[in-house]
């Protein structure tokens, strides 16, 4: 059997560079300029894993989370030492805090939206 390797994780958005800069600030990753262009921008994982990529979608519609009218389709979980640290870093990068699910008020994660409305979670602990 052939071993497969993840080549990239791509996120649709209206402005790939702007969203790559947001996640670059949040994660501390750099844009891989040789792999990027106007319609596709990659953030290089400094640990050597697959890049996080952003591709232009002129018809992009942001998820309406927590409503299911426009489903989120995917979300990223970002590990942080504490929820306070995650909150500070998310807001400093330009995220918006979203409502915490009522049944998870005491959970070890908090939900945010990136500048294009994709939900992501800041998860505390190991």
TrEMBL record:
Gene3D superfamilies: 2,3-Dihydroxybiphenyl 1,2-Dioxygenase, domain 1 (3.10.180.10). Pfam families: Glyoxalase_6. Residues 5-125 form the VOC domain. PANTHER family: CONSERVED PROTEIN, HYPOTHETICAL FUSION PROTEIN. This is VOC family protein.
